[in-house]
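INTERNAL TRANSFER SHEET
From: sequence group
To: structure group
Subject: DUF5666 domain-containing protein

Please process the attached sequence and return the structure record in the designated field. Keep the field labels unchanged so the import script can parse them.
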Amino acid sequence: MLKALSQRLARLRYGIPIAASVLLAACGGGGGAPSETPTSYTQGQITGYGSIIVNGVRFDDRHAVVVDDDDREGLRDDLKIGMWVEVEASEVDRDRGVGRALRVRWANEFVGPVSSVDAGASTFVLFGQTIEVRPATQFEDLPAGLASLAPGDVVEVHGYFNAATSRYVATRVEAEDDADHYKLRGIVSELDTTARTFRLGTETIDYSGVTDLPANLADGLRVRVRLLTEQNASGQWVAVRVKHGVRRPAPDRVESEIEGVVDTCTSNTSFSVNGIPVDASTAVFRDGFVTCGDEVEVEGQIEAGVMRAAVVEREDDDDSLERNELHGTIVSVDTSAETFVLRHEVHGEISVSYRNVLRYEDGTRADLVPGAEVEVRGRFVLGGVLQAARVEFED
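Return from structure group:
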């Protein structure tokens, strides 16, 4: 019920009258583009709040423009742990791990009905694609995680494609009670320009009603497709929108950092991450050369749509005890359960277990009292509880 209400409110806010939009733009809060020219670009997964933490950088998003992958403007509370985002920001202080976000764009991989669930293999199938669930996967309105899913349930999936396993890895799964459209990403195959159909994985897409198509639509192109929620008489999914599926690279010469999965490999120094070509001919490889399926972080600059890498590093912290990070104020403490409630300015109250904290900084366990400002590192478990491994008291 609450989920449906929030979705209806979200649709209302996407329909703000033009006059209000103009006013927002005049105040620096609307228009879909930042008024200040970005000097850095970061692509990766949200792993914490404070405001949002992406690739280990704490971005202040209080004045950022937030949009989805259709450039519909939203709010800061749309940005949640496990989502993949692109952050255009002012200069990032890498030493301190902070930056000021000017524009944040988020995108999902799928919205659609589950066809089967394999709890033993930690997978489910949607649109013919096998989707893998890992311990770090976040769930919303699915209290038992994968065990809450059943065939026919409609879900929204955030994640990435692992070329090594030919599976998608879900980083966030949300129940969608009243989706008014479905959505999927994939690689075009069996394009038939006469019948105006193509295939994404095992599914046939009818795009006969779409007029605004990618100019280079062809087999092998990565696309994202918005669909009607019912198949046609031929059992095909009906597209209402077809767009290029590669997340947008940064403007040329902007300092950039991309987290993702190596999806194609031409050589040790020529590959792509999240569909973005990478030239690593002059890069430092901190963990040796990478192969398809490796999760990596690449630092460098974008030139003509190509990431000119300076540093390439493997990034595999799904099982890290300090994968997630929160900043906020303690509002209550339950010493018997060894938990406290942390208030975040956007996402409200979050429960934290401090039973297995390994380290306290600038304070002790006795300083966990209401009003204390803390930075907490740990990992989220089912139910949205953060199991803390480290607590640092902030001024």
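Handover comment: The two ends are 40 Å apart (CA to CA). The first strand starts at residue 40 and ends at 49.
Transfer complete.
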